[in-house]
Amino acid sequence: NAGVTQTPKFQVLKTGQSMTLQCAQDMNHEYMSWYRQDPGMGLRLIHYSVGAGITDQGEVPNGYNVSRSTTEDFPLRLLSAAPSQTSVYFCASSYAPRGGNFNEQFFGPGTRLTVL
Amino acid sequence: AQSVTQLDSHVSVSEGTPVLLRCNYSSSYSPSLFWYVQHPNKGLQLLLKYTSAATLVKGINGFEAEFKKSETSFHLTKPSAHMSDAAEYFCVVSEVGYSSASKIIFGSGTRLSIRP
Q1: Fewer CB within 10 Å: C terminus or N terminus of chain A?
Q2: Is the dihedral of CA A105, A78, A88, A5 positive or negative?
Q3: How far apart are CA B38 and CA A77, in angstroms?
Q4: How far apart are the first and last CA of chain B?
Q5: A101-111 burial, b for 16+ CB within 10 Å, e for fewer?
Q6: From B98, which residue of chain A is nearest by alpha-carbon distance?
């Protein structure tokens, strides 16, 4: 299993550009999520999904869109990049027994994004 | 909705002395709780997890945590700190899988420094 994969690993954008961060997992996990990590602020949840066709907003969703057309893929779209979106982005997946809580998350290697 | 608070942004201890990293949580249901560690410029690694079994949970590298429902706490401890423990530690809460209201939330992190 490849686990959780993210592309690209590094990206530099100019203000106003758009782009999509790719995330895929091959573990058949229902739950997928995107976090951003900024110094001193931990990992903040951007968007998450509990299954194909279902997405919801996290703590900091503004400026980002997601879709979940398949169980495997969960892309994150930056609509019009701003310097405040400079961060490290992590994608993660998890699973839960029916009716139970989500178990531990499996993380991708991260994408380091700089917006100039 | 669930939330998690890490009470200390930075903890510094001497090598060989005990470590205590504090975490309080809020949850409407019976949560699962996790501790992750992130070494500098590295990804996230699961230290331990509580999923409604034993309240005292043992993890990797000598760490353990105790789930105290009455205090809504899940503090991380280690009897004797090692230089290699210097890292960022995150407390995480999850609840109720397979619902659009379910999500996994990170605390803001505690940076652990070890003095020689």
Answers
A1: N
A2: positive
A3: 26
A4: 41
A5: bbbbbbbbebb
A6: A50
Give chain A positions within 8 Å (CB) of B90. Answer: 42-43
Q: Provide the pLDDT for residue B100.
A: 56
Of B49, B95, B106, which is closest to A43 when you measure between CB atoms?
Answer: B106
CB atoms within 10 A of CB A9: 10
Start-to-end Cα distance in chain A: 36
Coil vs helix vs strand at A85: helix
Which residues are bridge partners to B38 per DSSP? B44, B88
Q: A83's torsion region: left (phi>0), alpha (psi -120 to 50) or beta?
A: alpha
Inter-residue contact A21 to A75 (CB < 8 Å): yes
Query: Which of B9, B103, B110, B111 to substitute to test the interface with A, most A CBs within 10 Å?
Result: B103
Q: Which residues contact A63 (CB under 8 A, 6 or more apart)?
A: A78, A79, A80, A82, A85
Residue A21 one-letter amino acid:
L
Distance from CA of B47 to the nearest CA of A (A): 10
In chain A, the largest separation of any two C-alpha atoms, in whole Å, equals 45
pLDDT (tens digit per residue) in B17-61: 999 999 999 887 788 999 999 998 888 999 999 987 788 999 999
Contacts 24+ apart (CB under 8 A), B52-57: B52/A101
Find the CB nearest A102 among B46, B104, B106.
B104
